[in-house]
Amino acid sequence: MKFANKMAAGAGAVGLALFAALPVWAQEAATAVAAPAAPAAEAAKPVANPGNNAWMMTSTVLVLLMILPGLALFYGGLTRTKNMLSTMTQIGAAACLAMLIWVMYGYGLAFGPEGNQFIAWGKFFLAGVNADSTAATFTDEVISEYVFISFQMTFAAITLALVLGSVVERMKFSAVMVFGAIWLTIVYFPIAHMVWAGGGLFFEMGALDFAGGTVVHINAGVSALVAALILGKRIGYTKEIMAPHSLTLTMVGTGLLWVGWFGFNAGSALEANGSAGLAMINTFVATASAGLFWMLAERAGGHKPSALGFCSGIIAGLVAVTPAAGNSGPFGAILLGAVASIVCYFAVTKLKTKLGYDDSLDAFGIHGIGGMIGAIGTAVTMLTAIGGPAGDDYDLGSQLVTQVSAVATTIVWSTVGTVVAIYVAKLLTGLRVSEEVEREGLDLGEHGERAYNY
């Protein structure tokens, strides 16, 4: 074949190939032209930022660390040997109960798509939620709704567990479970909605609560005091030595709580951003300040600076900085931690003795009082004069009124709800263990086992 013939044959083959490809090219061209119009709605659908999702998943696990083993060891070490396991078991079981109730209807009552100022509804049993569902943050970003649900679930779990610090060593396990189910429903879920959900009473008022000063600490602390008053004092209270059986375990629990609290506070930014970083450094310095100032208060009171005081100060600082974590500069946080620590010290050592109530592990003295100091003090830490993030138009007086109103409403709501929950539990279970079981210890009397078998 001559060269010219070869060229003609080659051109013919190319021509046939191009002709065969024309339908494909035409289809691709038509698709390219139609593409912007067809999937427009799908393209506008928000997608969770993987980095924020990863941070929030980490924060959620950190809050779980606060409960088990953190709070369990902290509270367990503070009780007497014969009640250590019962204390830890109540905390663990109460947390599990809260988790199950949360996914059944708690999330819907707190963050449902419909509602009013006091409660929400919808998404019961997580209806309509799937792997593609998203939840809003404080910017135009979104995170996976399953992650948000899990994060908020751990808050409900630890808040119920905190309440138990005032009633350990004398409350029946069955009563704890009944009380917990009712208390979550009529106290925790409504307060969480009012503070953190759009349309909620405190949210619309502009109340500042970055990570749960009202929802978690005032709520738990006030409820703890009410429950302790109704339950009554432990046998031998003020007459027998009821010293902590293992401050070593309490110190370990304190450390775990502090570590986990970074998920609690920095995680409440809902993103891995500068706000989370601010909450993180504030959680460091406010806590460090409070731990040292509690020991200084002990020294000023004529006592030796103690390990128990250090641990108590650490928790007081963590509690106080919770609502202010993203609403304060580092030096405002240091000041807040110091003030809260000193006030909580006097609440635990003086106020409780004077009033004579038996708050076994000082849930009210630290979480209740510390939460109030933090919630009200957050209005002050916002000031730019001490490094706060407030703008030039910030009205301190107005914000203080809002903060005090939120605190007062939470106190009233928690008190009434706890009275209802505790009396229903008493009606159904008898509430308190027998004198024989209390003297023997709840480890054996309620669970048939000992913390230590020598």
Largest sheet properties: 2 strands, antiparallel
Number of strands: 4
Form type? globular
Put simply, the count of helices is: 16
Q: How far do the termini sit from each other?
A: 103 Å
H/E element order: HHHHEEEEHHHHHHHHHHHH
Oligomer: single chain
Overall residue-averaged pLDDT value:
92
Rg, Cα atoms, Å: 28 Å
Regions with little confidence, pLDDT below 50 for 5+ residues:
1-38
Question: Which percent range describes the beta-strand content?
Answer: under 5%
- Based on secondary structure, the structural category is mainly alpha
User: How are the strands ordered across the major sheet?
Assistant: 1-2
Description:
- The protein has 454 residues and is mainly alpha-helical.
- The chain is 69% helix and 2% strand.
- It has helices at 3-34, 40-44, 50-78, 84-111, 145-163, 173-196, 201-205, 213-231, 247-266, 274-300, 307-321, 330-355, 363-381, 396-429, 435-440, 442-447, and strands spanning 114-115, 120-121, 134-136, 142-144.
- Residues 1-38 have low confidence and may be disordered.
In short:
By secondary structure, this protein is mostly helical. It has helices at residues 3-34, 40-44, 50-78, 84-111, 145-163, 173-196, 201-205, 213-231, 247-266, 274-300, 307-321, 330-355, 363-381, 396-429, 435-440, 442-447, and strands at residues 114-115, 120-121, 134-136, 142-144.
Task: Output the keywords.
single chain; 454 residues; mainly alpha; two-stranded antiparallel ribbon; 16 helices; globular; disordered N terminus
